[in-house]
Write a structure and sequence with these properties.
8 helices
Amino acid sequence: MPAKELTPEQKRDAKRLKVIFRAWQAERQEAGEAATQEELADLLGFGQSATSQYLNGSIPLNPRAAAKFAALIGCDVSEFSASIAESIASMASTAKAKEGSTEAKAKANPVSQRWPFHRVDFYKLSSLAGPAARAMENAMLATASDLDVDIRSKNR
């Protein structure tokens, strides 16, 4: 099955990235440093083929790949893709909002204020379900037993 055709915007993003890559490549070559696509691929953690496909617009850039290219080449994602930069900013904003909501819950809930394990998120721990909850409970009970501390609930 042939790959889905890239949108005009995705093609322009790839062209802009390739121009920035070529400038980065020239600077590195002048400095006597590694600068081939294969060497770039190794630094990015991609195969050379995938690196080439991203740069040539054969496959679409995604936020993760764009962030890796930008970090390595030393530019902002917005320099080659405004839409991906917006997507990354939106994801970061959502993550920050979730983090803030956990803090708001902690302030509103007196139980979490008394929570003695400051490096363990009360809400994340209490939201575990199924096998993850059982595994965590067993691990805590085993560790408490090793420390000769009884943390078992009186209700169960």
